[in-house]
Model the fold of this input.
Amino acid sequence: MAKAKKTTNKKAGDKSLSAPTLFGYPKYWAECFGTAPYLPMSREEMDELGWDSCDIIIVTADAYVDHPSFGMAVIGRLLEAQGFRVGIISQPEWDSAEPFKQLGKPNLFFGVTAGNMDSLINRYTADLRMRGDDAYTPGGVAGKRPDRSVIVYSQRCREAYYDTPIVIGGIEASLRRIAQYDYWSDKVRRSVLIDANADILLFGNAERALTELAHQLSKGKQVSDLTNLRGTAIVRKTMPAGWTEIDSTRIDWPSKIDQIPSPYDYHENIEKNQKAAAKGDSTEKESAGTESPAEVGIRIIPLPLQRKEKYDSATSYIRLPSFNKVCKDPALYAHTSRILHQEANPYNAKVLVQKHDSLEVWVNPPPIPLETEEMDWVFDLPYQRRPHPQYGDAKIPAYDMIKTSVNIMRGCFGGCTFCSITEHEGRVIQSRSEESILKEIEKIRDQVPGFTGTISDLGGPTANMYKLNCKSPKIQKTCKRLSCVYPSICKHLETDHSPTTQLYRKARAIPGVKRVAIASGLRYDLALKDPEYIEELVTHHVGGYLKIAPEHSEDKTLSMMMKPSISSYDEFKKLFDKFSKKAGKEQYLIPYFIAAHPGSDDEDMLNLALWLKQHDFKPDQVQTFYPSPMALATAMYYSEKNPLEKVRYKNKKLSVTKDLDQRRLQKSFLRYHDEKNWPMLREALQKMGRSELIGSGDKQLIPAAQSKHRARPVGGKSTRGKNRRR
Done:
């Protein structure tokens, strides 16, 4: 059988970091069945396709929409393109295993995902109130997915067909690959891999890992054989022979560190395995999972000594504090979060290991980013670009929102601590070609019913990071910065927006396209590096209002968010106003802000409220910080430590707002203009000793309380008693 073609990531400048191209694999034999109009959701559809079984069944908590913005469609069409027969079980009832048997037993594995959103964030607000709708369900109906969907669905799949491998992925699994703080239960939970009793976890967008996994299983391999697959996490009982352990389980190392004698350090075994590795013999590595500790040679290096000791980074892993330790010690949790985020660069990341009782969660390095040709291939798969016909005329709000939008790239190097994009998609920007994007716009024009000529968005996680990558392969290979744009924009970062500007011009020149809107978030500090881009955006792609997210006004809080100073916003607004006037348009910025973010106290929120009033902003849509799993800001929230710096027990505690009433107060500062919030704000201002801000003056924040008594009407009776009762 022919081998898959290899692609080398030229940006990294390292030929050892290569991966098979997604479209270079020899296809599985079932390719003879051809392309399905829609991936089947019933036995009847399977019969029409001539299938007796599915090779892979995807179980998802979202409605099945065959569109490249929906995860189940992307992975389903990806696997179909590899020759596999893929079925979909969408939003099944979960009170028994029967709905999970509707397509029969998959030949290879179940793929389980909570969908495009975390199931808990989908269902609950930041105030822990239940939402009344679900954008990923027909009719927007709430309650069609279980809390912790990945765990529940996996358990039902196991009940349905006990011996079928279970592969979990998507954002819910991705952000729970190690022990993580869970806001909804207010405790640290185990890796979802263990709670779901799954065989393997795929994190990130996962096309590479999924394709390799499917082909290996189709050749008769077991999931337990695939221990070193990038972008995956597995459970092991013992560590592999010949590896070096970087011990990062402590934050209180003594000033003088001596080499720790390892109880597993058998030099003969180490030399034997190193020689085997040099010869390319993987037999012992593959069988290492079954060895007893006495047989396994492991060299242990304390974290403070890792730069002084020589070891092979390809066969080394970092040992994180165990689940039991991070449950009991918030400072160790913050330290663990710091290490996890420092090991996010696919070109230098090490394996991470975390003990959960007697089991080890082994997290392989992130996948090699997709090349442009691979991104194009993924987005050019034969999507119908519509919901499955079984939904009839039912509206799926998430689909209606994106059906005329185009995703031009993946990833984000902003590193905002409250955002999960980096943890899921990574910091390396993966861009599609201009030709691929323009081709998709033409498909929207020709295929989307009721297309009016407006492309609702041309963006991605961030609107203006298209084709912006590190200029230096050498620097990128070694870099461990958490953000390319904070505390300042890296000098090695490409900031030329001309590819994006050129793309905008060509997109709106397509016949039948009347307008191209930009709805994705804009990194305005980055845009300042290219005023021509700002002029293009303001002149042609803003329909009166542009949403923008300074998030806060105070540097102390902004530093905890890894966001630029509010002065960058002021600079951007000047250019926005200048180019709007030049274009003869009256346009406005709509800023977004966050309340109750770690590091933000009541004084910061008061200053933000005063800033809003000074600039005559009366925000309607505001948000309270939501501690999503794995985010750096969530580590701040739980631990009251700052993982952006080296964590120590003696470090100063962060100001963290956890009480729900206090969180609501901070949110009320953002809506200082809403009279419903005035009683709460008056009480808070008095407690803060800022009563001078209560009144009707220009420099005062809220009006004073009106008298509870009305004046006695002339010639009439007093209404004082009635007003008192009111």
